[in-house]
């Protein structure tokens, strides 16, 4: 096993619950950090010594929520709220070949590794039906990229017209035979596909690949499917990853499922436990936060996506004050429109300053960076990632200190979060293996992937016009529904 010794790096290590910068040498034995040494210590005989005096070593970032199929649709979605946005984005995912799915996954992997993400949760929607061959293409791309990934295939079994609080009168004159009326694949069959996928890929890639389960959202799934997904998560000890309460309309749907709302609905099905990832969690009821905290459930905060879609403010400071375990996510390249987690960390650090005048409640760079490293690792159940410490996986990012963001160097954590974009990255390691060096991924032929993506995008623009036209049948009923629930009537913000 090769031992590598990064001599005298400025390292961000957790001490007393805070990330602090310390001059240390990092000894890596194969896939693992063997030890952190005083910078004066002599390297282990025979190891590869790398002079790291000009580098800031940071635990690899953990992106807790993205959707790889959307990377091919980057830049195509107009400025619309979620329910209208999703009409466009879902059409763009229809009828992909395995190679398109592979390339779409790899586009995100390249962007993420080049901006310091080493672990990711990919919430994968295969359209129109979940399919093992398509999921294989996703897993192959992640395996080839060198990144650490948890793949949570999306399951859902309610037709779209049952997933929003439509008024039946608004739908009665529409011909929805091409869309929304198709019978979904039965719950048991969907779970069987995820079982087969789990059996094939979980634990592969030197342990880098994990398979979890990802109900799209409680309002998009029958209780039967949700319970089966919960059972899958328990049997395989994986996270159950689901969008929850992203918009006000989803809150309305929650009340249709349970008089006390969506979080209570999940609780009544036995799903509110330490394995669940509640993605977005914006429109919570007053007592939901206590309920989430008591259950040890986790929240994934996606501030850029929430702003892009006008969804609202996740009550991050209050969740933190209640001790809720939280990770950060970029969400997809169709609603962000990138997957650079450093940008998301900055938003998480400062966004809530806009709606809380008491600076004691502000999240700030220190807490935001912890959410993006050890916090995210905890949310995904990655107990060996997210920290620079002996015995942890060697997942780390080295930033050049001789760069705009760190010149002059006054506060490494503040400058990393508020100033750096990824342009100062010198190298990235995952499981001890170098995946990025000097603005280039080491295991992926980037230019070839980008050329293929350009070809696929051209074809999609040409071929998905009919799918787009079909989905836009629902535009008028959705606009009426939004008005009915008082959205877009006052022209103001909906932040509280
Ligand atoms: Zn999402």
UniProtKB/TrEMBL annotation:
Residue ranges of every copy of the Amidohydrolase-related domain listed in the record = 57-435
Tell me what organism the protein belongs to: Nitratireductor aestuarii
The family database entries (PANTHER family) matched by this protein are listed as:
AMIDOHYDROLASE-RELATED DOMAIN-CONTAINING PROTEIN, AMINOHYDROLASE SSNA-RELATED
Signal sequence annotation: none
What protein name does the entry list? Answer: N-ethylammeline chlorohydrolase
Per UniProt, what is one Pfam family of this protein?
Answer: Amidohydro_1
Give GO terms: molecular function aspect only. Answer: hydrolase activity, acting on carbon-nitrogen (but not peptide) bonds
Q: Which family does it belong to?
A: Belongs to the metallo-dependent hydrolases superfamily. ATZ/TRZ family.
Record-annotated membrane-spanning stretches: none
Record carries keyword Hydrolase: yes
Going by the UniProt record, its keywords in alphabetical order are: Hydrolase
Looking at the keywords, is Hydrolase present? yes
Q: What is the lineage of its organism?
A: Bacteria, Pseudomonadati, Pseudomonadota, Alphaproteobacteria, Hyphomicrobiales
InterPro entries linked: Amidohydro-rel (IPR006680), Metal-dep_hydrolase_composite (IPR011059), Metal_Hydrolase (IPR032466), MTA/SAH_deaminase (IPR050287)
Q: Report the superkingdom from the record.
A: Bacteria
């Amino acid at each position: 096993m090769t031992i590598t010794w990064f001599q005298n790096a400025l390292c961000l290590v957790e001490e007393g619950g805070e990330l602090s910068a310390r001059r240390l040498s990092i000894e890596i034995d194969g896939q693992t950090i063997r030890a952190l040494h005083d910078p004066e210590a002599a390297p282990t005989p025979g190891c590869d010594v790398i002079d790291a005096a000009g580098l800031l070593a940071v635990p690899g970032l953990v992106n807790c929520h993205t959707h790889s199929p959307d990377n091919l649709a980057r830049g195509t979605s107009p400025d619309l709220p979620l329910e209208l946005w999703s009409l466009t984005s879902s059409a763009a995912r229809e009828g992909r070949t395995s190679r398109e799915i592979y390339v779409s996954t790899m586009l995100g992997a390249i962007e993420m590794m080049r901006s310091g993400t080493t672990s990711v949760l990919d919430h994968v929607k295969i359209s129109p039906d979940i399919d093992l061959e398509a999921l294989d293409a996703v897993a192959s791309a992640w395996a080839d990229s060198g990144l650490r990934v948890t793949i949570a295939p999306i399951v859902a079994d309610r037709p779209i017209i049952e997933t929003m609080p439509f008024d039946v009168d608004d739908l009665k004159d529409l011909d929805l035979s091409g869309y929304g009326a198709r019978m979904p694949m039965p719950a048991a069959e969907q779970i069987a596909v995820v079982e087969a996928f789990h059996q094939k890929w979980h634990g592969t890639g030197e342990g880098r690949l994990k398979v979890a389960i990802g109900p799209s959202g409680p309002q998009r799934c029958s209780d039967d499917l949700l319970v089966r997904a919960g059972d899958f998560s328990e049997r395989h000890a994986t996270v159950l990853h689901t969008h929850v309460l992203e918009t006000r309309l989803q809150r309305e749907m929650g009340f249709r499922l349970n008089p006390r709302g969506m979080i209570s609905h999940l609780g009544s099905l036995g799903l509110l436990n330490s394995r669940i990832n509640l993605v977005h969690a914006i429109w919570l009821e007053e007592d939901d936060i206590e309920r989430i905290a008591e259950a040890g459930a986790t929240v994934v905060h996606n501030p850029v996506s929430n702003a892009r879609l006008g969804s609202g403010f996740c009550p991050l400071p209050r969740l933190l004050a209640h001790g809720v375990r939280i990770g950060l996510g970029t969400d997809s390249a169709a609603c962000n429109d990138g997957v650079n987690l450093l940008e998301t960390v900055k938003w998480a650090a400062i966004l809530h300053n806009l709606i809380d005048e008491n600076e004691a409640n502000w999240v700030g760079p220190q807490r935001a960076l912890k959410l993006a490293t050890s916090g995210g690792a905890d949310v995904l159940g990655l107990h060996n990632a997210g920290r620079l410490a002996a015995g942890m996986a060697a997942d780390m990012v080295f930033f050049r200190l001789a760069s705009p963001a760190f010149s002059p160097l006054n506060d490494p954590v503040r400058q990393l979060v508020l100033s750096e974009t990824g342009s100062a990255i010198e190298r990235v390691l995952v499981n001890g293996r170098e995946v990025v060096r000097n603005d280039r991924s080491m295991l992926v032929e980037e230019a070839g992937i980008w050329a293929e993506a350009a070809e696929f995008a051209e074809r999609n623009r040409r071929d998905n016009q009919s799918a787009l036209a079909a989905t836009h049948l629902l535009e008028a009923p959705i606009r009426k529904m939004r008005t009915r629930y008082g959205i877009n009537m006052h022209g103001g913000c909906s932040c509280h």
